[in-house]
Design goal:
Layout lengths: L2 H16 L4 H27 L2 E3 L5 E3 L11
Antiparallel strand pairs: 1-2
Length: about 70
């Protein structure tokens, strides 16, 4: 995420501490926060996609999501 957008999030937070944000400012802050969250999650996913597990026997394999965790019990 661009530094300019991060600074704007901080600016809106500082304003919110002094006074109530206008509906437009609240909407902008929500949009910027959602964009920031998506950026963080994308970066984390990218890092995890490149993780390799090295087993004690020396074999290597990429991590993969455990699909059994997604099933309802």
């Amino acid at each position: 995420m661009e530094k300019k957008k991060l600074e704007r999030i901080s600016e809106l937070t500082a304003i919110a501490r002094k006074r109530e944000l206008t509906p437009e400012e609240q909407q902008e802050r929500t949009q910027l926060r959602n964009e920031y969250r998506a950026s963080v999650l994308g970066n984390l996913k990218g890092q995890l996609d490149n993780v390799i597990i090295v087993e004690p026997d020396g074999s290597k394999h990429p991590i993969s999501p455990d699909k059994s965790l997604n099933k309802k019990k």
